[in-house]
# Entry
Amino acid sequence: MTLQRNKRNGEIEFWRWIFCVIVFVFHVSLDRAGTYIFFGKGQIGVEFFFLVSGFFMAKKADRERDRDTANLGKESMIYVIRKYLSIFPYHLFVFIAGLFIILYNRHFSLEGLSQTLIYAFPQFFLFHMNGYIFDAKVVSVEWYISSLLIVSLMIYPMLRKFYDKFVFIIAPLASLAVGGYLANKGPLLDAPKWMGLTTMGIFRAILELCLGCIAYEISKYIMEKDFTMFKRVILALINLAGYGIALAFSCSHMNEKVRYIVLLFLMISVAITLSGKNLYGGIFNNGFFRYLGKLSLPFYLNTNIIRFICVKLDLPEISYKKHLVIAVLMNAALCVAVTFVVDMWKKYRLIRKTKKETELKSSVA
# Structure
């Protein structure tokens, strides 16, 4: 049984926004010589993003299980290309801005400029996390999206071809193996770090997308059960505890290896939230929280732009809290504007497409 298609889950969109702000605050704090009052381990938000992405990848594969897999290679490539195109308008904006920032901050010869533009080529198509990092990290936070796309192309065809074997055997074993390997290689945080075979970011994506696939199966199990009110209260408390532990960890000075255990708590909370059985989940199912979730991608991608503006305005010289408030408000305003422009562009394309289809039908008739 697959989970039904619904509108975006308001609670997961709320948490998407919260974790996005946490990641942003972490990055902004880097410009204050590593001063952290809030969210010194705010990278935990990226773990949440991977988990949710893995969940929806498994959901799509589960929904397509009865379809023929004769053209699985092409189907998998189309799946990844569509994900790339879905973020492309936001990616294009921050990529152009990132190139401008690089050119502004450096003095280039013609040869140096040409080299930088060539180095930027892999990131434009978001396959740079295979090791093509070089010197031009045009949009540093896009390591997450690059890793997501590359690993999705690895995992999705296995999900489609061997769904049960993958979610019940391969994903748990891969999570244990990769998690153990990374735990003994040091902190999970240096995404471009070369690990002998590929980058840390790719291994991180494998670990967390696999856990997201497991979360989907947990969610299916929860969905199929009838819960008494008492059990629903317990489920809600477990759900809150998972997010609470993640938030507490993000503000802590705990050992980095704790992050792997926090991941498991987050996985369970994501599963409960997306099962639709969470007792209080209905309060989030409205347009406001869904809109917050919609803003989360540009808010995340705008990080380098806002940091650049803050440094040019000398905001790191004012109090830490004022710096954070101004940075968050600037980013919120920018991502609202960018989202509005993208929505207008999509609407314009839809109108043109509809008009062409109408004209085609008229000419055929």
